[in-house]
């Protein structure tokens, strides 16, 4: 039986909207990988979604994955809300367009390749994987700010 890949994801934003960063910390047995990036004029929710997409797209083959996120928006969106959004032509419960549809569609495509368990973790309480992902996202923002000057 193959090992489970653990992915810790986080997104952050300096201003909302503002400069955003995403961070991913992948664990597979003894192997570890860190990834991050940034975008200008984005939101924290877009960065949370981007982190999950980037983490899943980094996997080379179909895998069993546990994704840890401190974002209720991400976890509940992909495990609960998305089904009604799709059924209702990407309208939310208030009949308004679902925000970040482009990223939700990308996430669905990334999710379909894997067997995924989504786990919510409370942020900023010392969970090592979550702290690493948070630091990656925050540092990506700092790097983007320094290159913007």
TrEMBL record:
CDD domains listed in its UniProt record: RNase_HI_prokaryote_like
Keywords for the protein's UniProt record, in alphabetical order: Cytoplasm, Endonuclease, Hydrolase, Magnesium, Metal-binding, Nuclease
Superkingdom per UniProt: Bacteria
Family matches, as PROSITE patterns: RNASE_H_1
Family matches, as Gene3D superfamilies: Ribonuclease H-like superfamily/Ribonuclease H (3.30.420.10)
Pfam families per record: RNase_H
Catalysed transformations (reactions): Endonucleolytic cleavage to 5'-phosphomonoester
Cofactor binding notes: Binds 1 Mg(2+) ion per subunit. May bind a second metal ion at a regulatory site, or after substrate binding.
Domain RNase H type-1 stretches: 1-142
Keyword Magnesium: yes
InterPro entries: RNase_H, RNaseH-like_sf, RNaseH_domain, RNaseH_sf, RNaseHI
GO molecular function per UniProt: magnesium ion binding; nucleic acid binding; RNA-DNA hybrid ribonuclease activity
Positions of Mg(2+) 2 binding: 10, 134
Main location: cytoplasm
One of the protein's GO biological processes: DNA replication, removal of RNA primer
Compartments where located: Cytoplasm
GO CC aspect terms: cytoplasm
Required cofactor(s): Mg(2+)
Record family assignment: Belongs to the RNase H family.
Role summary: Endonuclease that specifically degrades the RNA of RNA-DNA hybrids.
HAMAP family: RNase_H (MF_00042)
Protein name, as recorded: Ribonuclease H
Gene giving rise to this polypeptide: rnhA
């Amino acid at each position: 039986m193959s090992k489970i890949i653990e992915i810790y994801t986080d997104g952050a934003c300096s201003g909302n909207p503002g400069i955003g960063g995403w961070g991913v910390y992948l664990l597979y047995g003894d192997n570890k990988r860190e990834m991050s990036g940034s975008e200008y004029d984005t939101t924290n929710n877009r960065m949370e979604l981007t982190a999950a997409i980037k983490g899943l797209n980094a996997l080379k083959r179909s895998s069993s994955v546990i994704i840890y996120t401190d974002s209720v928006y991400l976890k509940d969106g992909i495990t609960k809300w998305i089904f009604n959004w799709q059924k209702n032509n990407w309208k939310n419960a208030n009949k308004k367009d679902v925000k970040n549809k482009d990223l939700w569609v990308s996430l669905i495509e990334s999710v379909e390749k894997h067997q995924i368990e989504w786990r919510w973790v409370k942020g900023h309480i010392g969970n090592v994987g979550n702290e690493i992902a948070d630091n990656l996202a925050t540092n990506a923002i700092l790097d983007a700010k320094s290159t913007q000057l």
